[in-house]
Amino acid sequence: MEFPIEPLILHEDAFYEYFKPYRHPKTQHNILGGIGLETFGNDYEIVRSLDPEYVWTVVEGGDGDDLWITPGISRINRICYLVTANPHRWLEVDFRCSCRMTSLTPLGLKRQINKLHRAQLLRKEDK
């Protein structure tokens, strides 16, 4: 019997540190601090042309004001898309963007990065 895999839930600081999002040179909008791509028009065409392993979707959560960064191209509750220098390789991970504007301590960030490294290694072993 297989059990569903629960996604790893981490802080947005770990996302920025580990996956390295950047502003796509052809984006035409200034969403999410300038690194987001819009969900329509030329920005959306850029997203569709990219390798989906480097694309993330920022979505609204159902409960509260928090946003979530999820791997791949989603169309439900989307706010914008992000492109990263490092691929997610379809890792089961979500990053919470708290509306409270909190940051991890250096030790907390290191721990979350280590969790990502372990999850990536386990994913490679499963293949």
Explain the layout of strands and helices.
Elements: E1 8-11, H1 12-19, E2 21-22, H2 41-49, E3 55-60, E4 67-71, E5 78-84, E6 93-97, H3 106-126
Helix pairs in contact: 1-3
Describe what you observe in this structure.
The structure is a single chain. By secondary structure, this protein is α+β, with helices and mostly antiparallel strands. The chain has one domain. Helices cover 30% and strands 23% of the residues. It contains three helices and six strands, in the order E-H-E-H-E-E-E-E-H. It has a six-stranded mixed beta sheet, covered by helices on one side. A hairpin with a 6-residue loop joins strand 3 and strand 4. Helix 1 packs across helix 3. The chain is globular.
Features:
alpha+beta; 6-stranded mixed beta sheet; 6 strands; 127 residues; 3 helices
The proportion of residues forming helix, as a percent range, comes to 25-40%
For the largest beta sheet, what order do the strands appear in spatially?
Answer: 1-6-4-3-5-2
Output the radius of gyration: 15 Å
**% residues in beta strands:** 15-25%
> How many β-strand runs?
6
User: In terms of per-residue confidence, which ranges show pLDDT below 50 for 5 or more consecutive residues?
Assistant: none
Apparent shape:
globular
Number of domains: 1
Task: Report the biggest beta sheet as strand number plus sense, adding barrel if it closes.
Answer: 6 strands, mixed
**Count of alpha and pi helical runs:** 3
Distance between the termini: 19 Å
Average pLDDT score: 91
Quickly give the structural class: alpha+beta
